[in-house]
Structure formats: C-alpha cells, structure tokens
C-alpha cells in the first residue's frame, strides 16, 4: 500500500490519498481535492513504478475527497449510495472562481471551504464533479480483496471505511471527525465512540484523511488518554 500524504496545514484542506497496488488492478482511495492534486498523485505513482488504478473509492462525498476524480477518466468510481444525490447536486453547480465568490457573499459561513476550493483549482477547463458509477449499501469487496464498509456518522452520511486485509490497514476517511465547520454546533467534537468501535486486533494501522497514521496501540492510547 502507498500513501500520498495530505497537507498538514488545515486551511489547505488537502487529504491523504491511498493506493493499494495489486497485479489484479490497483485501487485508489479518494480522488484528491482537485485535478492538480490528482496529477501530482499520478506523477507519484509513475515515479514509484506502481500500476495505474482501476477503481477509485470515495470515502465520502465532500469536495476535498472527490474533486480530483475528473483527472482519473479510466477508473470505475465506487461509493456509497447516500453520496449520489449530493454529488449530482454539486455537479449541476456552475463552478468557477466567480461562482465561489458570489456564493461566499451570499453565505459567509462557507468562506473557509470555498476559499480553499479557489486555491485548489488552477483551471476550470474540463472540471466536473463525478458521482460514483458503482454504489453499495452496507459492504462491498473489490476483486483485489479490498473491503468497503459503510459507517455513516455525523461528518457525512455516506462515510465509508476501507480495509486492506493484506496490510492490516484501515483507511478512515473523515468518518470520526465532527461535521464540517459550516454545519458544526459549538459543542460538537470528534465521534470518539465511532473511533473506538473501529479498533480491532485485526488492524495494525489506522489512517485518517487529515491526521498522521496511528498504530493500533497509539490509537487506543489516544482514545483512553
């Protein structure tokens, strides 16, 4: 398994992307937060000599996890069915820097997210928001043995965790994070009960999208400390 680490600056909103390389066809987990980000990941894959992905898995529908998908035209996009409707709605919006500015003027609470989007996208030529082309409801195992499980939660209704059995890695996306800032109440924090429920001796490493990977021991200590 190969990780393209996220940006440690929280204002960048640039998550970690994972690739599970396999001779049967590689799986990329999350698309990158822009076509430019996806192109960096492509270059990294080529430099590492890893096979191109055949499947792209969305951990959830938020922009920073899906906006790079249009730069992966050859892959099958897999996501939970609850993400289809919001992504179709996003796909109909007239994305441009002008649209971002006008939306923030109308809804100032969206400012941090929309400013990050404006910085992420260098060109809107060919840009598109893509819903999944293959959906599931509860669990799905890809031909490579990678397992997807819907966990939902307050961050996103379609949150999905991705288990890589051979590596004993669980990719968490943002599933245990609080709701996005513009939807978050003043007392809402991380979903620690969900995080604790995902701990198991069958997993050695836990990888969240905006934090450093944690070993099982580190994750247990973080939740009990």
TrEMBL record:
<dbReference type="InterPro" id="IPR036866">
    <property type="entry name" value="RibonucZ/Hydroxyglut_hydro"/>
</dbReference>
<protein>
    <submittedName>
        <fullName>Glyoxylase, beta-lactamase superfamily II</fullName>
    </submittedName>
</protein>
<dbReference type="Pfam" id="PF00753">
    <property type="entry name" value="Lactamase_B"/>
</dbReference>
<feature type="domain" description="Metallo-beta-lactamase">
    <location>
        <begin position="14"/>
        <end position="210"/>
    </location>
</feature>
<dbReference type="InterPro" id="IPR050855">
    <property type="entry name" value="NDM-1-like"/>
</dbReference>
<dbReference type="InterPro" id="IPR001279">
    <property type="entry name" value="Metallo-B-lactamas"/>
</dbReference>
């Amino acid at each position: 398994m190969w990780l393209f680490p996220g940006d440690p600056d929280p204002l960048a909103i640039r998550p970690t992307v994972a690739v599970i390389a396999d001779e049967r066809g590689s799986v990329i987990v999350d698309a990158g937060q822009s076509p430019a980000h996806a192109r960096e990941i492509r270059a990294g894959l080529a430099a590492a000599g890893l096979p191109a992905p055949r499947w792209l898995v969305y951990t959830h529908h938020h922009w920073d996890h899906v906006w790079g998908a249009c730069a992966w035209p050859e892959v099958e996009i897999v996501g939970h069915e609850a993400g289809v409707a919001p992504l179709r709605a996003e796909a109909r919006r007239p994305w441009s820097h002008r649209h971002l500015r006008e939306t923030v003027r109308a809804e100032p609470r969206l400012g941090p997210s929309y400013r990050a989007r404006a910085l992420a996208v260098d060109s809107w030529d060919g840009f598109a928001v893509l819903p999944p082309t293959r959906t599931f409801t509860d669990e799905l195992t890809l031909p490579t043995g990678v397992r997807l499980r819907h966990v939902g939660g307050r961050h996103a209704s379609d949150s999905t965790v991705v288990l890589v059995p051979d590596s004993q890695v669980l990719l968490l996306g943002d599933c245990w994070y609080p709701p996005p800032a513009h939807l978050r109440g003043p007392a809402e924090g991380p979903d620690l009960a969900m995080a604790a429920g995902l701990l198991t001796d069958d997993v050695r490493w836990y990888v969240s999208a905006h934090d450093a990977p944690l070993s099982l021991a580190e994750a247990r200590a973080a939740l009990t400390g």
